[in-house]
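Hi! If you just cloned this repository, the fastest way to understand the data is to look at a raw example. We've pasted two of them here, unedited. The first protein comes first, obviously.
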Amino acid sequence: MRRSTIAFSFLIAAQLIGTVTYLVFLSRLLARLRAAHAELWESLGRPSLVRDSTMASQARLLGWLRRRGYANAGDRELQRLGAGVRTMLISLIANFAVVLLVIVALALRVR
């Protein structure tokens, strides 16, 4: 098996494992928001993983994570979950970009 195939397999596995971990932490974050910070959860558009989820609420949640809104909530658990979700999301985006670059590099090399 070629090194490039092994590296690509590793990147895909990391993306899959990271995505599952991200979804678990995001689920916990959303549950914490809903239970302990109902007003904030409402202001974010009642975000959820699947049920009654809208693009607008997801965009608000992503903006809140990008701005580190969790840091000002005065809730250590929410801060921990928010920082974890943000870090995992950034890592997943970076890994996905590397996967795309590897695909392009492999495609160019085949020609």
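Ok, and the second one:
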Amino acid sequence: MDTEVLKGKMLEYGKAKVQIKHLEDRLEELKPEIVGGIQVIAPDDGIVDTDFGIFTVSEKRTYQYSEEVEDLTKRLKALKRDQEATGEATYDTKPSLRFDEKIII
């Protein structure tokens, strides 16, 4: 692939990443309003069927653990870091692409 083609693909990639970030931010802004509206108009089942999709409000569990579990979690993370540092833990590598926005697109 020549340099100009690669630059074009990189520009397209960068623009797409920026658009995704903006869209994700907008989704987070819209979510509470939509959830609130659905809870008002469909309080029994939390489902609204539209021309472009079905929206469902459901309960999501989040857990708060005891101090004992939190301590064990911290100890496990520390043990993992130690094994990574000493080479006892093994790893695989694969190519990864990182994009840092430089210009406003």
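That's it. A detail worth noticing about the second one: The chain has a mean pLDDT of 94.
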